[in-house]
Amino acid sequence: MKYQSQAVAKPYFVFAMILFVGQVVFGLILGTQYIIGDFLFPEIPFNVARMVHTNLLIVWLLFGFMGAAYYLVPEESQTELYSPKLAWILFWVFAVAGTLTIIGYLSVPYATLAEITRNDLFPTMGREFLEQPTITKVGIVIVALGFLFNIGMTILRGRKTVINLILMTGLIGLAVFFLFSFYNPTSLVLDKYFWWWVVHLWVEGVWELILASILAFILIKTTGVDREVAEKWLYLIVAMALISGILGTGHHYFFIGAPDYWLWIGSVFSAIEPLPFIMMVFFAVNMIKQRRREHPNKAAMAWALGCTIMAFLGAGVWGFLHTLAPVNYFTHATQLTAAHGHLSFFGAYAMIVMAIMSYAWPLLNGRESSSPQAQKVEIASIWMMSLSMLIITLALTVAGIVQIYFQRMPESGQAMGYMATQAQLTPYYWVRLIAGCTFLLGVFMYLYSFVVASRTKADAPLIPVKD
Amino acid sequence: MSERFTKGMARNIYYGGGIFFFLLFLGLTFDTVTVIPERENRENLTEQVAHGKEIWENNNCVGCHSLLGEGAYFAPELVNVFQRRGIENELAFKGYLKAWMGAMPTNVPGRRQMPQFNLTDEEVNDLAEFLMWASKIKTAMDWPPNIEG
Q: What pTM did the predictor assign?
């Protein structure tokens, strides 16, 4: 840690991990409900558990991105954070608002929550991933604005590196596109059309800028490769992300009532969407090959490299698998979509947050890396989580294919009904649930690696004086 | 990467490409927004339909079901439930929906359960109006592929 104010990243990382555990636990509840339909009913109906699962994911990733920004922006800017105090205040605002929202989901029926938060005054609730009460959404905007102000002022005061500028662009985009969550027209088609401006333009747009800049930061720091080389890569990766990803939104416009030309635009551009992800793999491999130093934090490098590979598989390969309109005609809203969603979110975003945490945490605690013993546990946890997630993805992929075969391919009259088809999928749901349990084990191993690290701190390398 | 390809060129591709494709996207959006009213039969989007959408949202229906293929995959697609369960007959569908909503949850052990939402007759009626209106939205390739959604 070169700047004292970087320490404000700590609470963000810790809280992100608490929410991550919660997300996975609710994932297991959902996985069980797919097999035992009335599990925990009526206490926790499926829709509530799903809302908690997806909202926790989004919020812990946002905490992770904010923590990452608070850590890396001062270092890149070569100046202290504009206001560590503001960062602390916003941390508590966001943590309390997030916790209250989750408690709201779990304690009252959703319609009651809509009523007590006066959704009728400004209806924004009840849409996938944007289930938060309007007042929570306003809170998110306030936190985002304060955060952008803090980070922006820091960058303005200091060095404006390519990493800083691209990260900042990504974060501004995140805040701007979230504003579309307040637009909820009575027209279902318009509603869906602009709903994707939040969802798609986040995960297949501006979030990729955040991902790529964090990745570039970790690679520069751990490999010692010249910044110029990394920045050229970074520009090209984010260029391809935007060139493919913006019109790639069209793959969501196939069957929601939008005009037919989206079939072509969406297919062509989303077919290019794997490109930035394969470039990230080459970027990471090349940087590591050309490394000019042996950084002791092998675990952080494993996270970074693993992130690019799993993101390429999840977003690139599994995305491409069902993105062409004639294929998507059959796969749309089947378990295949769920397979892609799980692997891409884990590979691209969960892993990059854990990569930066893994890099930053020892430095925030006065060491260049954790002890070799702790890193051993940590690297084992990367394998455990990654392999478990691959099995989850494969199980859901097979389930999706079977579902398409029975329910989607035959003509009306011959096709199997939805619930009857679901009964056919139970074996694959079991595989998914078991892999979900081993994933949770992986999460605990990861958290345990921090315990090992603090116990064996004496064996961890100190930060070199000149760096 | 080759030395002839400079960081400046990469930066220009990023800014130029990003801005160009975003403007193109805005143009296409403008066209789409002008075409949507016709494809969704905006003239039939009554107050009841709008109220139905509110009920759909306030009860988080999308947390289990999908509509036009978006939402959760825990329960059936509902954009063509009017055709599937209502044989495209308004009275039959409204009668079906009222009976269905009233019978929830089934409490059949081990089976997926839908909560009891305690909707009034008017609310069930408007929810039906919303689903009937949605079923008539013109989708590309006439998705979904068959009656099972």
A: 0.97
